[in-house]
Description:
It comes from Micavibrio aeruginosavorus. GO terms for molecular function: carboxypeptidase activity. This protein has helices at 26-37, 65-77, 102-107, 119-129, 148-155; strands at residues 14-18, 42-45, 81-86, 111-114, 134-135. The protein is α/β, with parallel strands linked by helices. The chain has one domain: Rossmann fold (3-Layer(aba) Sandwich), CATH 3.40.50. The chain has a five-stranded parallel β-sheet, sandwiched between helices.
Amino acid sequence: MMIIQPPFLISGDTIGVMAPSSRIARADIDCAKSFLEERGYGVFIHPQTYLHADDDPATQYAGTVQEKVSALHDLAANSDIKAVFFASGGQRAMHMLDHIDYTLIAQNPKIYMGFSDNTSLVNAISAKSGLVTYHGPTFKRLLKNPQADFNLRLLSGLEKSIPLEGATTLKNGTAEGTLFGGNLA
Length: 185
């Protein structure tokens, strides 16, 4: 399978947001949206993201599998959306995997970013479409991530490497290959 590198973000691009896992509170949506807008990006919050946003915090899910897959497909097909940030982690993203149109995603390359429960989603998109995806902060976590601006520079191609001060090398050398990100939680 050919590896597809999505275009880098540029100022003025629109970032789409959908919730493949747990619900996200409206206040968190508004704060993260403002954070990105202050940095020159447009932000489109898919209506699915607001499902259960105002519910009791004990309500976990951000819609049915079909509602989530439909939101993902809407953002994938929208040529105005240059990146898709997953709203939050939580649970149930893996239920989407068998229902995703990976050809649609491959034919409309853009940045997809998330972590935690979304790891299954970004890795499935990479494995089944060939698209490079990003294991990085969810939309909700942007405000709590001291590296958020650095992450945006990486997605914009303004940073080419990640400094690893204080890292311990087990074996010196170089390597080439395909890297799949993830977390062990």
